[in-house]
Amino acid sequence: MPDRALSTSLADSFERYLQDKGKGRGGDGGNYRRNAARELERFVEWTAGDRGDDDWTGVVPNDVDREPTFEDLDERVFREYARHLAGDRGLKQNTVQTYYRYISAWCGWCVNEGYLEAHYAQRASAMAPLPDDDGRKPGDQQAWTSEQRHALTRHVDERARDAIETYTTLPEDTESLDKQRARYIALKAARDRALVFVLAYTAVRVGELLRDPNDPRRRGVRWEDISLEDGSMDVYRKKQRWDAASLPDPVISPLRSYRKLIDPPTERWPVFPTFDQRTLATLVQGELADRGERPDAIDERRDEYARDLLLALEEDVRPPSITTDGARSILQRLSDAAEIDIDHPKHDYLAPHGGRRGMGEVLVRAFGYTVAARYLDNSEEMVRERYSHIEAGELGDVATEALDEIDSDV
User: Which positions ≥6 away from 28 have C-beta within 8 Å?
Assistant: First the structure.
């Protein structure tokens, strides 16, 4: 191995690695890149002696004054780091495994790039201190029950119906701003209803449906991506390609009603735009200024509208989609308003991924693993693994029936 590679500091390799692992143009997007960057930074701080126990001085010899380089790495270093992670009592067992995998993936890349001669992080002695997975089963993760799904969809449906009826039955002599306020309330309720129904019944991943600030390709579903007539929606799948997802019957009516109400200026508008006032105010002011409007004229235009969203619709100032975090906030608000009984160790609300897992439960029980895998856009093997608790329960029923039959003959 070239001496130049051995003498390279660890941190000097990070940017190239992250670009290779990142998403989008220039490799500057993606959740993996963000998480990997965080763990690499922690690792290099540990190798320098800035993390760990008080007596930990790092991997560089005490009589040498330099940053850690690749010549300092061997399987013993990765063994010590695995021991360091495992000794952090604030981390769950599977979290330790996850953090170590980030470092291990970088180590493998370094071998391919010529920085290291062997994949030290994957050697048995290096991984020995890592704890076993904590055994948490997918069945222990939140999945909306039928009762919870019905309670939430019923709540948002009633709320949207009331808001739309209030808006559409206003007297003709209602003041303009009052009409706008009623329309805004109806739009927000209709958007929330459509979002809940899509999450509840399509089993589409929330990251495929909404905007991910860390991945420029995930800009959120637009109206041009939806065909209500065909009952389909194009989404950017987890496997890094566009694909059609099904829109079952319960989803069509909420989407159609919402589309009629919002009447997007173009098909490129997001289906689920943000309603955040600060974001919309900044966006409207900036876009109208770019179009040549004077600041005082912009202020006058904004004063004519109860909300900047309504001005954005009028002037075709396209807002961003809500983010995945935004969806979680919406579901927290709606779960509280619907007073849904939720007993889960991690989430005190109906989380977005729970809608997908809930549909998975329904499909596996009703049609089996093969059909469920197609609908969930997963392999049958993965679906069997994630919903193994269903098969275990069914086998338990079979065993009980067999015991009853045998015991009855005794």
Answer: 19, 22
